[in-house]
Amino acid sequence: MYGLDARIDLSFLRGRELQQVAVGLYQVQFHFDEDLAICIEGEFRYSDGDREVLWRQEPNSSSAAASTVALLGAAIIGFTASQDGTLRLEFSNGHRLTIFDSSKDYESYSITRPGLYLCV
User: Fold this and answer.
1) Mean pLDDT lowest among 19-23, 55-59, 76-80, 90-94
2) Distance CA 107, CA 40 (A)
3) How is domain 11-119 classified at the CATH fold level?
4) How many angstroms separate the CA atoms of 30 and 90, rounded?
5) What digits encode the pLDDT tens for the residues 4-52?
6) CA trace torsion 20, 47, 90, 63 (10° rounding)
7) For the residues 87-111, what does the mean pLDDT come to?
8) Spatial CA neighbour of 113 closest among 41, 39, 37
9) pTM of the entire structure?
10) Neighbouring residues of 11: CB distance < 8 A, sequence distance ≥ 6
11) Shortest CA distance to 86 belongs to which of 74, 95, 73, 99?
C-alpha cells in the first residue's frame, strides 16, 4: 500500500469528463478530457445508485468493468481522497467510482496528466 499524501491537491479532477473506458484482462483505464487518465490494476467499486459491482484483477471480471461505460460523458463533480489510498469519485450522472489501494506489494492505480504521474 502506498496511500495518498494528505497534502496532495487533486482539485484538477473536478469537472473532467469521461471520454473512454478501456477494459483489459488486468487493468481498467478511464480516459478523461484534458489528457487525464486513471488506470486501475487493483480493485474498484462502481455504483449506479441501484446496484454496486466490485472489479478485481481476476477471471470473469470484465462484466463488472463493462458496467462503468454508463459513466461515459459524465463529469467528476466531487471526490474524496483518504490517506489509506481510497479515492471516491462522484459523477454528474449520480454514479460513483471508489478506487482502493488494495495491494501491499504492487501499484493499485495511477493518475496521469501532463506534468503528473501519481502511483498509489
Assistant:
1) 55-59
2) 9
3) N-terminal domain of MutM-like DNA repair proteins (3.20.190)
4) 14
5) 888 889 999 999 999 999 999 889 999 999 999 999 999 999 999 999 9
6) -10
7) 95
8) 37
9) 0.95
10) none
11) 99
Nearest one of 95, 98, 64 to 80, comparing CA atoms: 98
Q: Which amino acid is at 49?
A: G
105: region left, alpha or beta (phi > 0 left; psi from -120 to 50 alpha) = alpha
State which amino acid sits at residue 46.
Y
d(CA 63, CA 74): 20
Tracing cell 478506487 back to the chain, one arrives at 99
In the structure grid, which three cell numbers stand for residue 90, read together? Answer: 462522484
DSSP secondary structure letter of residue 88: E
